[in-house]
Amino acid sequence: MSEATTAGPAEGQPLSLWLATTGATDFPVLHGTVEVDVAVIGGGIAGLTAALALKRSGRSVAVLEAGRIGTGVTGHTTGKVTSLHRLAYTDLQRSHGTSAARVYGAANQAALEHIGRTVAAEDLSCGFRRVANYTFAAGPEALPEVRAEAGLAATLGLPSTFTTDVPLPFPVAGAVRFDGQAQIHAVQYLQGLAGKVDGGGSFVFERTRAVDLREGTPVTVAAATGTVLAGDAIVATNVPFGDHGRFESLCRPHRSYIVAAPVDTPPLDATFISADEPMHSLLTVRLDGTTYLLVGGGGHPADEQVDPAPRHAALARYARSHFGAGSVSYRWSTQDALPQDGLPYAGPLNPDSRHAFVITGLRKWGLTNGTAAALALADLLNGTPNAWAALFDSNRAPRRPTAQAAPRAGDSVSHTDSAARAADLAPGDGTVLDADGTSTACYRDEAGHVHAVSAVCTHLGCTVGFNRADRTWDCPCHGSRFDVDGKVIQGPATEDLPPRPVP
Ligand SMILES: Cc1cc2nc3c(=O)[nH]c(=O)nc-3n(C[C@H](O)[C@H](O)[C@H](O)COP(=O)(O)OP(=O)(O)OC[C@H]3O[C@@H](n4cnc5c(N)ncnc54)[C@H](O)[C@@H]3O)c2cc1C
Ligand code: FES
């Protein structure tokens, strides 16, 4: 059997608050052949921002989204729209120098303002709210680095101050405050963007997974049900495909957890992240008459197979002890690509690509990094100069070796259980069983039915492991995720796990 949960029954629905409070979109599946100027693969913040910017500059676009708009990483975000990325400037100055840190800050400030302008100009209803954003030192240990970050960010021209007056309901030692930042309901924002992209010779297709991309004149993007022919293509699938494994060594998927619990207080006029460990990321939002506190944290490399229940339980305890929050309403987790040198990638998909481009490596700050990367690519395709395109260039030379090599194809990080049987599985649990030498991923649903699929990831053959919090099969190697029936939720895999007989 799989290892026991150590935190008792999990509280709340295993669903993102953002997805739980938004109806689904219903754009059509791609059928036949469509010709446009630019094919955009992926309906997250990166893809849709690029698509709308290109459409507004006079290009026709087609967005291909494998699932529904906003159901990827962006639909599981915390929702902070800010250029204050914990202690990023200290880190970037150290690794890339002051000028690179300045450009990164300017790119993210520009992205924040772009989102604000887009919400106003396109009349999008998505809870965009200006708030201050803080990186706080809970205790004296983190205070010097918080003070240093505040000073550095101010010299880089960012709206930064150091303060000991931090509007949290518990004492902290001090914080960096960035004024004029924002928070957003990211799913509503994406649905709004998609509505503006579709029409007038441009398209949004849902339930349309791109399975092949061929460069040429035109670029051909193939899905099971149709084809898009385009002058250029942008791969904005979070973890790219069609890159021949190039970004596997440049980025590592990193998972984090979030709980949303009701609080009895008015929404905070600020968002927060701690500089200390364990890190806590905090935001409040009022939705459908309830004020929710979101607490994020518990992060780890996605190739570490951890039991999510204790991580969610720790965040729930923090919400109660620090904010008096009630029982958790929603809990979820998601993962994003951490670039090895700390900078996003926006540029050619492969080193010699002329018409295929990529956005990835958004370092868990993709609401602004993804927006900035998308704007850089839109400018590149339009021949417009862009102040941060060179810094984000995907063809830049690697600056530092990868801290820890990602697991390689064929690795089996999760354990196959040859002694157990599907009959032993509790409802809601899953495990990988050895059935006559074949690894089979078995999940028992609440009605008692066992769902059995191959446990061999269709990307490069690692063995998937069961994620109890989200009830998904997650690959430890490069971040692919599958639902309990084997359907791809997150790439780079593009093919589903095939069904297997129940062992
Ligand atoms: C826990 C957590 C909290 C975060 N909080 C914040 C925050 O507060 N602020 C912030 O700025 N950033 C935050 N981030 C980071 C941010 O959410 C991400 O960087 C960003 O949402 C990624 O956007 P994306 O467009 O790259 O990916 P996605 O939103 O995943 O979009 C990619 C889309 O591509 C689709 N797709 C994949 N493969 C294919 C294919 N072959 N064909 C067609 N479609 C495909 C997917 O279905 C998906 O919808 C957070 C990250 C995590 C992990
Ligand atoms: S083997 Fe690469 S994501 Fe699974």
TrEMBL record:
Matches recorded under InterPro entries: FAD-dep_OxRdtase, FAD/NAD-bd_sf, Rieske_2Fe-2S, Rieske_2Fe-2S_sf, Rieske_Fe-S_prot_C
GO molecular function: 2 iron, 2 sulfur cluster binding; metal ion binding; monooxygenase activity; oxidoreductase activity, acting on paired donors, with incorporation or reduction of molecular oxygen
Residue stretches making up the Rieske domain: 417-503
Domain of life per record: Bacteria
GO cellular component term, pick one: membrane
Biased composition (Low complexity): 400-409
SUPFAM superfamilies, A to Z: FAD/NAD(P)-binding domain, ISP domain
The name this protein goes by in its record: Glycine/D-amino acid oxidase-like deaminating enzyme
Originating organism: Pseudarthrobacter niigatensis
Organism classification: Bacteria, Bacillati, Actinomycetota, Actinomycetes, Micrococcales
